[in-house]
Fold:
Amino acid sequence: MSVRAIPPDSLNGQTLLSLRLEAEPDVVVARQRTRDITAGLGLSPLDQVGLATAVSELSREILQHSNTARIEFVIDPSASPRFLWVQISDSSAESDLERRANSSVAAIRRLTDRFEVLPAAQGGSLRFGKRIPSLVTSDSLGRLRLDLANQPSAELRESWQQQNRDLVQTLETLRATETELESRRNDLERLSVELEETNRGVVALYAELEERAVALAKANELKSQVLSYVSHEFRTPVHGVLALTHILLRRIDGELTSEQERQVSLIRKAAEGLSEMVNDLLDLAKVEAGKTDIRTSTADLGQILGAVRALMRPLATNEAVTLTFEDPPPGLLVETDETKLGQILRNLVSNALKFTERGEVRVSVRVAPESDMLSFVVADTGIGIAPHHLDVIFQEFSQIGHSLQARHKGTGLGLPLSQKLARLLGGNITVSSEEGKGSTFVLSLPKRFSRPSAGTPNGTPVEQDDPCILVVDDDEPTRYLCRQLFRGTRYRVIEATELEAAERARFERPSLVILDLMMPDRSGFEVLDDLKNDASTASIPVIIHTSKSLTEGDRQRLGGRHIGLLPKSGKSRTEGLQLMRKALGDPALFADQPEFAGDQN
Structure:
């Protein structure tokens, strides 16, 4: 492109700028120069765009039919009003510009104020004009012409080419992005199809799992029913065997030879093992069926551990193993199901004794002020448990192979049942162990306990509002009769086995102990020794309640440490009732009994 600059002194020659059109970039330059000129003349932005558009459109139309053309921007200073004229002339042989630019003429007429076609005699040109403001002076026109002359068209062309290159690069980037988006859209569609197929598979799997869960629940319910039924059916004959061995060992029907006694003892031991298994099965079936009742009461923590200690001591037959119970904080009351807590602790201690050949089994209680849990810890120095077996021990009917296991056969129900009972009480059992170095079982329960009132002396049990009577007897009908004897009175009747009697008496401090003499695990004579040898229970009055005809040797063993006899036969019991009245300091007691029907006291 070439630009013909007009000297300043020839402004009257009317031409501001002359451009040659030879290629498409020249159209862009022509448009830009039109914007520069119209802006310099003070035309409005709308008029600037309109005239620049007319120039670019007409130039493009002409270049489609001609190799070269010329554009001139002319002002007639003497005219009134003054116009900026844009004149386009074609140097080709065919000079009918109006016909070749026919498609742009209508638009040019709308965008300009004047439009003229010069005849061929005057050069065969088109020109169109835009009125310019009257404030434009000769000086401003001169400055505008100099600015246009000082800006090379080459720079505009290079700028256009750079913009073109940038546009091409942008288009390529957009094309690559579009290709990538298309690829991702295809991937998304494929993933959507795969996800839909997966969803169908998951739905089918869930349906199958639900069916299996229902079948498993039915099987579990059936198992519980079978366990419950079989256990109940076993319980009756097992209890019959135990009752018969009890009769034989008490020599009710005559003496036994030493060999017969040994045989009956073996039968009783086997029946007791079977009875224990039946009880575990029943308890397990009840827990799984959700039929286990939780009977919460407030009990002394020391009393609970004392009862467990009394029951466990006879099992500690290995002299190389020491069974130690650490005393809990005195007077600490715990709100829980005492029976189930005792059952869990007995299972844990029993297991520890079975699998400890030497050393110690230690039972303790941890009461952490900052924790919400109360922990019962049973630690032993026994054979220990391998890490991969720690979960197995809580599975039903699972046992770990070991030489000691052959000596202590079991059902594998003790720990699973204990864990289920612990969870019913709102707690949990955890274990840490190392082979050959012992195990530590921790029963954690919610810390729902309270301290005794300020007036309660340390180390003494909490006094109950009503005095209690402790009945120690293995016979259920006899215990029932004792309860009925004190029915309607202010006395509470508590019961204990011969193994836990001394501990219950030490913590309950009963006003009177009613003691049987002939019991299977320990005799009444041994229980009486325990009571009278402990300073805390030595003063408690004891009345002997028995069906045995006492021999001289029996009376010597009693040694006058009882207040009297209460025969189970019901005959000659007036004296025993009178003695109990006196021991309790209650002359109106038993007023409803036939023996005192006419007694006004």
Observations:
- The chain has a mean pLDDT of 78.
- The longest helix spans residues 153-249.
- The radius of gyration is 57 Å.
- Residues 35 and 49 are 7 Å apart (CA to CA).
